[in-house]
From TrEMBL, chains A, B:
Keyword entries, A-Z: Flavoprotein, FMN, Monooxygenase, Oxidoreductase
Xref: InterPro entries: Diverse_substr_monoxygenases, Luciferase-like_dom, Luciferase-like_sf, NTA_MOA
Protein name, UniProt field: NtaA/DmoA family FMN-dependent monooxygenase
Annotated signal sequence range: none
UniProt keyword Cytoplasm present: no
Lineage: Bacteria, Bacillati, Actinomycetota, Actinomycetes, Mycobacteriales
EC number in record: 1.14.-.-
Statement: the UniProt record of this protein carries the keyword tRNA processing: no
Domain Luciferase-like: 34-382
Length: 438, 438
């Protein structure tokens, strides 16, 4: 039995992870705008001992005709409000390094960190969609290479701003009546780079956990390099154990290359659970969720979506999936399918049950789902998972009530919160004492 | 007895309005960073029936050696957290039109408006300090004229984004399973202006009050024009009744020139109350707050600060105060002193008791303070006041416990909240039905 914990985050966007989740008959379709809905979801997550709730983001209206409303309320605002209502749990806040300014974002995240008592994790995204660019000026979306160069400088500036304060600046006001912060307890950063000029210091002192953690999800080379340099948590689409092990090794190597302790990077790939009383029922629920009456219909739609020939019992060859480092959209989803069928011979029928919405699908009874989670963790292939319940709150409640107790019984998770910050919970060191200042 | 209400907002920055408020012996000096402190203050304000709490802002570290720490936690974040904890009361959120992007700000304020149930008021500022500019790029702070041109375009874009939705877009999802928002319930705005290119639509539908109210404080010609065009609430430094009456008339005239109903603009100038059991005690508290042992010392410091000759019992002539439309800093404070001594002959000794920190000072017993508030309101010179308690929470508690009951007894205020949004509370019309779309 390993002494390390299994970390669990949970995605809480909108009506659930699945595109059809807004059609769930047991909840109001317009709950994507309801604060009470998110409070219920976050409380459920806390009851289940999750380490953090997670919101992805997209600052533009998404109108896929057949999909749920997605990415409406701003993550900084929604998670700040939740932090004021739900204790203990962490908050993974997605915010773009392409369409924010470093000073405002550093300040807002640090303010959240103070108010929440040290529970903020910033998920850095560079934004890949031209619809977003059109809301922020006349310039077209920059290419990936430029966006990641900007992201790297952005994160570096934000960290410098956070660290422009000493730990004890607020603890020791000298004598009352003395000048405030007249020494160098808060220092300008005088940053002048390719994209940003920022003088500083920040106007918010260090918080309860020093400063927020950093999360990252990009799977391109540039994304992995950014994660290796800066990320405490990494979210990824990893569909098989082999690929997960390789990804973790690559990430740790990159962290070491940037003079970081490779054991301080936590990998929590996405995982979509479909839990039912029997395996058969879980298969049927998977089909219904996707709007299909039977397995063959599901498999055919899967083939169509990925441009694969419809041969349910033929083995899918890796060559059918190819991604290019210079493509516009995210490359992680395509690469993960390629890696999965490279490592395991899978028929189309089998493959359609291993992935949903781009992430690892696990379906079955509570025991079957728990076992698939524990398997990767016992073998030290990942540090945990980012659970993506297909519909909210329904599938999160099922997971908390039926799967979490099995994970607890194995000593993998705890539903207590003995640590006072999310940094301590993830076992990560003081950022100001330990890390290089850029 | 007029049937209209007296509106009251209250400033809740940091440790209080007064520069020395962090030295108050009855509260921890570092409460400027404490969420619990702000919760206590907002709850007190709600108990007192205030219409809204107000945070000014300055996105740069302010290190005046002898002043309180000011403008640390971000207003959007702090007020979102408070909205999740304190019901009913409104939130005046200051955010800069020079150092935000319209899409992000429109979305964040709209998200707050949804989560708070329609309690958000955006206070538009153009930011006048070079320290701020240095945190947001290498360009120097633009001149006032350019900043206000940008502010006007910024507010116009934000309003277009808010109004890119129909009222009933979320009420009627057609039949479940039909395409979502496929008609023109959300429309691109396709804005292309001098400063901004924004396609839209916003990804947040209209909220409980349509969209947030708009507040404005600039006293320059450009500021008043911006207020006339867009502001629902106006904050100003108005030291005398004569100037207040003139200011209101000027503002309504400007609103009418922009095709607005002039009766829908509410003027709530700043007011600093110092309440004590006797007039003498209030005078002594005013001196102590400013770090002086007696009146002459206070008067001398006042003269020094404003560059006036020290002649305690000589009349101060208006020519001693002059402001220029093209000066860098805010011109409202200087102009308000000029207007006060033009309308009333005041000795230096008297003048030093009429203003503190730039705003109207009223000091005395609870009855004296209430009478000075009611006097302007009865004469219809203003719609209400933005109370600026010198120290928090102390002076707010005193005001709520001792002054508010007197205002209630006159029928000027209520401590109930019968209206469900801050727009309804201020008696303002549906913005989508009534207003031009730019």
């Amino acid at each position: 039995m390993p002494s390390r914990r299994l970390f669990l985050n949970v995605g809480v966007n909108s009506t659930g992870y699945h595109g059809n989740s807004w059609l769930a008959p047991d909840a109001a379709w317009d709950r994507f705008l309801s604060f009470d809905h998110y409070v219920e979801v976050a409380r459920l997550a806390r009851e289940g001992g999750f380490d953090a709730v997670f919101l992805s983001d997209h600052p533009a209206l998404q109108r896929a005709d057949t999909s749920r409303p997605l990415h409406s309320l701003d993550p900084i605002v929604l998670f700040t409000a939740l932090a004021a209502r739900v204790p203990d749990i962490g908050f993974v806040v997605t915010a773009s390094s392409s369409y924010n300014s470093p000073y405002n974002l550093a300040r807002r995240l640090s303010s959240m960190d103070h108010i929440s008592g040290g529970r903020v994790i910033w998920n850095v995204v560079s934004s890949f969609n031209p619809d977003i660019a059109a809301n922020f000026g006349s310039a077209p979306l920059p290419g990936r290479e430029e966006r990641y160069r900007r992201a790297e400088e952005f994160v570096s500036v934000v960290k410098q701003l956070w660290r422009s304060w000493d730990h004890d600046a607020v603890d020791t006001p000298a004598a009352l009546g003395d000048p405030l912060w007249s020494g160098d307890s808060a220092r300008p950063i005088d940053h002048h780079g390719e994209f940003f000029d920022v003088r500083g210091p920040l106007n918010v002192p260090l918080g309860p956990q020093g400063h927020p953690l950093i999360a990252q999800a990009g799977a391109s080379d540039a994304g992995i390099d950014l994660a290796g340099r800066h990320a405490d948590l990494v979210y990824a689409a990893l569909l098989g154990k082999h690929a997960a092990r390789e990804f973790g090794a690559q990430l740790r190597e990159r962290a070491a290359a940037h003079d970081r302790d490779p054991e301080t990077v936590r990998v929590l790939p996405g995982l979509v659970p479909i839990v039912a009383d029997s395996t058969e029922e879980a298969l049927r629920r998977h089909e219904r969720l996707n709007g299909h009456a039977d397995e063959l219909s599901l498999v055919r739609a899967f083939a169509d979506r990925h441009g694969l020939p419809f041969d349910p019992d033929g083995i899918v060859v890796p060559e059918l999936f190819h991604s290019e480092e210079n493509q516009q959209g995210p490359i992680g989803f395509t690469r993960s399918l390629h890696d999965l069928v490279s490592a395991e011979p899978l028929t189309l029928r089998q493959l359609a049950r291993r992935v949903d919405g781009g992430h690892r699908l696990v379906l079955g009874t509570p025991a079957e789902v728990a076992e698939q989670i524990l398997d990767w963790w016992r073998d030290d292939v990942v540090d945990g998972f980012t659970i993506q319940p297909p519909t909210l709150p329904h599938d999160l409640r099922t997971f908390v009530e039926q799967v979490v107790p099995l994970l607890r019984a194995e000593g993998a998770v705890t539903t207590d919160y003995p640590e006072s910050t999310v940094r301590a919970r993830f076992g990560l060191p003081d950022p100001v004492a330990s890390a290089p200042t850029r």
